[in-house]
Specification:
Blueprint (H helix, E strand, L loop, with lengths): L9 E4 L5 H15 L5 E2 L11 H12 L2 E6 L1 H5 L1 H16 L4 E6 L15 E2 L6 H11 L28 E6 L2 E2 L3 E3 L2 E9 L4 E8 L4 E9 L2 E9 L2 E8 L3 E7 L3 H5 L6 E5 L2 E2 L3 E3 L2 E10 L3 E8 L4 E9 L2 E9 L3 E8 L3 E7 L1
Parallel strand pairs: 1-2, 1-3, 3-4, 4-5
Antiparallel strand pairs: 6-14, 7-13, 8-13, 9-12, 9-14, 10-11, 10-13, 15-23, 16-22, 17-22, 18-21, 18-23, 19-20, 19-22
Helix pairs in contact: 2-4
Length: 347
């Protein structure tokens, strides 16, 4: 059985392209448990064979009470997620009290080793709140009646370098957010909506000028976007018919230095990837998209400057583009899509 020190510890396996959903899931679990350390979650998405990070992953899975794996097309293709699943299943054989819960975020082939565990699905028409309640029940967690407003602190490389969000807003229907201050540089917005009609979010400055259309869609939405922000006070002008949430973060120097050497990305719909390193010189991006609408891929540097347009197509796409990266450093990819996509980075 799990040790007393691990009695309430939960480990979450995921692919880094699913951070937008996982940030929300982890914050909700921590809120329900009434503290900010009970859920072990690493948003950096970079692993190294037999290195310190993988060793800490092993300690986390072998020392926790419950294990959650978030399944998506990117997750089932990740060798690191598969290694974590294998380790959790091995522990389950030796410890029948160990709890394993596979969570389906997007349609994908569930690994055979997880078939014996009941699957929780966040697929439409299920709502986040309904499935979260069932998840808490399986974890034998009774939401804390005195839980404070959650502070969504996401561990990066197992050390708390920064909170997940600098600003976070949530409400229902058409609303305007409180004013908040952005500094000049890269800003990443994680956005969700559970309504059925038009949903859009405009970033506006203190002069009332529209600076960026962060999302413009219809119905349920979970995604993210990256922009180059101007310094100053801003607000969000939201059109919606359901519950919505926007979390904003501006990466800083420690995160730039911790950017991983990631060379493949997978996801679905509108996404801003995690930070990754690129060397200067020739770089080739191989891209695929299975969808019916726009497929737009932009490379954005750590200052928020759009370094290159990599793709701007409609519908299904399978192609590549070679570019010259002027300087090495940390970058993100911003993807606008309506279907599954994958990107491989070659030198």
């Amino acid at each position: 059985m799990a040790s007393n020190s691990a009695a309430r510890q939960i480990f979450v396996s995921h692919d880094h392209t699913d951070n937008t959903f996982c940030f929300r899931l982890v914050a909700s679990l921590r809120e329900a448990m009434g503290d900010n350390v009970s859920v072990d979650y690493d948003s950096s998405g970079g692993m190294h064979d037999d290195g310190p990070t993988w060793q800490s992953i092993c300690r986390g899975i072998l020392g926790c009470h419950s294990y959650i794996v978030v399944l998506s097309p990117g997750a089932v293709l990740s060798k690191w997620v598969q290694k974590e699943i294998d380790l959790a299943c091995m522990r389950k054989v030796a410890d029948d009290g160990f709890v394993v819960i596979p969570v389906l975020l997007r349609p994908c082939a569930v690994p055979e080793s997880l078939h014996r565990f009941p699957l929780l699905s966040f697929l439409s028409p299920a709502t986040f709140e309904t499935i979260l309640s069932e998840l808490l029940s399986r974890l034998d967690v009774t939401p804390s009646p005195k839980s404070p407003k959650p502070v969504p602190s996401i561990d990066i490389g197992r050390s708390a370098i920064r909170a997940a969000y600098d600003h976070e807003f949530e409400s229902v229907g058409q609303q305007v957010s409180p004013r908040f201050v952005l500094r000049h540089g890269l800003a990443i917005f994680d956005i969700s909506h559970d309504g059925t009609r038009h949903f859009s979010v405009w970033l506006m400055n203190e002069r009332g000028e529209r600076r960026s259309l962060l999302v413009n869609t219809r119905g349920q939405f979970t995604g993210s976007t990256a922009i180059g922000a101007n310094a100053g006070a801003h607000l969000l002008n939201v059109a919606a018919d359901g519950k919505w949430r926007v979390g904003m973060r501006q990466p800083d120097s420690p995160e730039f230095h911790k950017a991983q050497d990631t060379r493949s990305f997978n996801g679905n719909g509108q996404t801003a990837t995690s930070l990754f390193k690129l060397p200067g010189g020739l770089v080739i991006f191989r891209m695929k998209h299975v969808g019916r609408r726009n497929f737009i891929v932009s490379l954005i540097d750590h200052t928020g400057h759009s370094a290159q347009s990599l793709a701007n197509k409609i519908g299904t796409f399978d192609g590549a583009k070679a570019i010259q990266v002027e300087r090495s450093g940390a970058y993100v990819l911003e993807i606008k899509a309506d279907g599954d996509w994958s990107i491989v980075v070659d030198q």
